[in-house]
């Protein structure tokens, strides 16, 4: 099984690249952000709770996020592997993911991080806000809060997998196809390692 984590700050291109990676590697794409937005769209209690955090650019609490992720994995056991997009974002989430995979004699194959500078991210997300209708993209101070949360709480997750020699970083600035080529090269190398 192939278990990839697509990592990087908000707006670094994770969702964009996951779509292409799914085609190439035939994996199930699980985006916790997309799962939350679907719950919000369906006005479920989980969605209402998640929205109160997402609108501020804060992380949704771990127990809610981990429970939702596990459910999605358990509903899809017969796949070649997973692309985890936007998960894990905290050390407890990473530990829960490792434990869940280990219970099935699996592990993370590789964490691939997209490196993009803050100003490029702010530009991309404000631009996406024009069509996405996402309130967390429309306000620069909320975007900057998301970037601070990433630096303070999420970035250390890359270090967690670095200790296991699983972390790889690629330059996320450039055309979408160009960035995809860089990702595929790193992933292909980690698959034969
Ligand atoms: P996400 O849905 O994961 O939001 P994101 O990080 O903004 O999306 P992504 O990074 O995939 O967007 P992309 O770069 O592809 O999370 C939203 C919120 O949900 C979080 O803030 C949090 O509140 C909550 N949440 C989610 N997961 C959680 C977890 N595990 N724990 C707790 N809370 C959680 O796209 C950005 C834009 O850039 C697009 O417009 C795209 O077209 C553009 N773009 C992409 N690649 C480009 C390129 N190469 N050049 C130019 N533009 C590019």
Terminal Cα span: 14 Å
**Radius of gyration from the CA trace?**
16 Å
What small molecules are bound in this structure? BIS(adenosine)-5'-tetraphosphate
Helix fraction bin: 55-70%
Mean pLDDT rating = 96
Number of domains: 1
* Main beta-sheet strand count, sense and barrel state: 5 strands, parallel
CATH H-level superfamily: P-loop containing nucleotide triphosphate hydrolases
Structural class: alpha/beta
Which CATH architecture would you pick?
3-Layer(aba) Sandwich
Helical element count?
Answer: 10
Number of strands: 5
CATH topology: Rossmann fold
Order of helices and strands: EHEHHHEHEHHHHEH
How would you portray this structure in words?
The longest helix is centred in the C-terminal third of the chain and has 17 residues, at 176-192. Helix content is 60%, strand content 13%. It is of the alpha/beta class and 193 residues long. The protein has a 5-stranded parallel beta sheet, with helices on both faces. It has a single domain (2-117, 156-192), classed as 3-Layer(aba) Sandwich (Rossmann fold). It contains 10 helices and 5 strands; from the N terminus they run E-H-E-H-H-H-E-H-E-H-H-H-H-E-H. BIS(adenosine)-5'-tetraphosphate binds at residues 10-16, 31-33, 36, 53-54, 57-60, 65, 86-87, 89, 93, 124, 128, 136, 146, 174, 176, 179.
Descriptors:
single chain, 193 residues, alpha/beta, Rossmann fold, 5-stranded parallel beta sheet, 10 helices, 5 strands, binds BIS(adenosine)-5'-tetraphosphate
């Amino acid at each position: 099984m192939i278990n990839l984590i697509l990592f990087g700050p908000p707006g670094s291109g994770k969702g964009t690249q996951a779509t292409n990676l799914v085609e190439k590697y035939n994996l199930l794409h699980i985006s916790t952000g997309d799962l939350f937005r679907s719950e919000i769209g369906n006005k479920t209690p989980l969605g209402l709770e998640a929205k109160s955090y997402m609108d501020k650019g804060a992380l949704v609490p771990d127990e809610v996020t981990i429970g939702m992720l596990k459910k999605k994995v358990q509903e899809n056991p017969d796949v070649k592997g997973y692309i985890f997009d936007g998960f894990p974002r905290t050390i407890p989430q990473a530990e829960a993911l490792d434990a869940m995979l280990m219970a099935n004699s699996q592990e993370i194959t590789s964490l691939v991080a997209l490196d993009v500078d803050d100003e490029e991210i702010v530009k991309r997300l404000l631009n996406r806000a024009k069509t996405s209708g996402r309130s967390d993209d429309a306000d620069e101070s909320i975007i900057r809060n998301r970037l601070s949360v990433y630096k303070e709480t999420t970035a250390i997750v890359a270090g967690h997998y670095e200790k296991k020699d699983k972390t790889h970083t690629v330059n996320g600035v450039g055309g979408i196809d160009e960035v995809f080529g860089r990702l595929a090269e790193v992933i292909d190398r980690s698959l034969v390692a």
